[in-house]
Specification:
With 134 residues, this protein is mainly β. 5% of the residues lie in helices and 42% in strands. The protein has one helix and twelve strands, in the order E-E-E-E-E-E-E-E-E-E-E-E-H. A hairpin with a 6-residue loop joins strand 2 and strand 3. The structure holds thymidine-5'-diphosphate (TYD). Thymidine-5'-diphosphate binds next to strand 4 and strand 5.
Length: 134
């Protein structure tokens, strides 16, 4: 997979004096069926998450609150994506190295995933990733 397959997706937003609403549907704004949802919260200042690739799992990441960066790399290049609006999501195809950092205080990352949790789907060693991703 290549960095060029990554997409920032603008989600529908319904601005309203009573409070705003955004929505995401599987196979519509995101190109996969959602098998799992997890979220990352209470990240201490300066911490980073991730530092791995998935062999099969695809993800869609939304900053429901606050902001953070998602850093994605393929074999050739590395790119940093800032997520700071709850109506934008980042589509992350399988097979990319991914890290997350710069979490703001009280930020909340929700991750929609295409597969059930499987520890064997992770590549946690970057040199293994470079070999695998030939
Ligand atoms: P991990 O994916 O390694 O977090 P990060 O990449 O952000 O550092 O997950 C951290 C822990 O949570 C790990 O022990 C496995 C567990 N976990 C699950 O049990 N199910 C899940 O769906 C996820 C994402 C993690």
């Amino acid at each position: 997979m290549k960095l060029s397959d990554v997409k920032i997706v603008q989600l529908p937003k319904f601005f309203d004096a009573r409070g705003n609403l955004s929505v995401v549907e599987e196979l519509k704004e995101i190109p996969f069926k959602i098998e799992r949802v997890y979220w990352i919260y209470d990240v201490p200042g300066g911490e980073s998450r991730g530092g791995h690739a998935y062999r099969k799992n695809e993800e869609f990441i939304v900053a429901l609150s606050g902001s953070f960066d998602v850093i994605l790399s393929d074999r050739n290049e590395k790119k940093r994506f800032l997520l700071n609006r709850s109506y934008y999501g980042l589509y992350v195809p399988k097979g990319l190295w991914r890290e997350m950092d710069n979490f703001s205080t009280n930020s909340l990352a929700v991750v929609l995933a295409s597969t059930k949790y499987d520890a064997n789907d992770y590549i946690r060693d970057n040199s293994e990733f470079m070999l695998w991703n030939k």
